[in-house]
Amino acid sequence: MEYSYLNLGHLSSILKIERGSNPYPWSELNFKDCLEQGYYSLALEDQTELVGFAIMAISTEESHLLNIGVREDLRGRGHGEAILKKMMTAAEVMGSKKVILEVRISNAIAYKLYEKLGFQEIAIRKDYYRLPEGREDAFVMSKSLKKGLKSKLFFTES
Ligand SMILES: CC(C)(COP(=O)(O)OP(=O)(O)OC[C@H]1O[C@@H](n2cnc3c(N)ncnc32)[C@H](O)[C@@H]1OP(=O)(O)O)[C@@H](O)C(=O)NCCC(=O)NCCS
User: Fold this and answer.
1) Which residue, 4, 125, 9, is CA-closest to 64?
2) pLDDT of 120
3) Rounded to whole angstroms, how far apart are CA atoms 155 and 145?
4) Is 114 a catalytic residue?
5) CB atoms < 10 A from the CB of 82, how many?
6) Annotated catalytic residue: which of 39, 40, 114, 129?
7) 13 lines ligand 1 (CB under 6 A)
């Protein structure tokens, strides 16, 4: 298994994951925009096959996990957890104080993953997600990161 930065070559595999797991999936344009914006985006690959991906807007105040997905036939094997841990490490190294995310209130599996990694529910965004018919609320979840990791890495005392 290897990590790489997401690129246009990953898009068709990502769209398959997205369309198979989301009632109102992101479009190809949504993913292209993320790549153009330079969001921190990782692909986990097994040889040439995409296993999973995640996209995060990183900033020093708070980083925002925008999307994460694992191929349906490879779920439940620790890949989602591994990818999310990588994203959190990246945010921490860049000096983020916390990571936030939204999750559909019906998405119990993703909620469990976030809870396992220490995310806590901090709010509900009403009607945040579109559905083919109507809207669905989102839980907003947050996890504080270790303070000062960036300064430890870049300004180590002798
Ligand atoms: C959410 C998702 C990324 C998890 O990836 P995964 O590789 O299947 O998850 P992992 O195997 O790493 O599991 C990590 C933890 O998640 C939770 N989890 C995973 N699958 C679960 C299941 N079927 N039921 C309950 N909890 C589950 C558990 O807490 C698990 O830890 P454990 O194995 O110690 O119990 C994956 O299910 C997915 O791609 N879903 C569709 C897209 C999606 O919903 N993205 C999130 C948008 S907010």
Assistant:
1) 125
2) 98
3) 18
4) yes
5) 15
6) 114
7) no
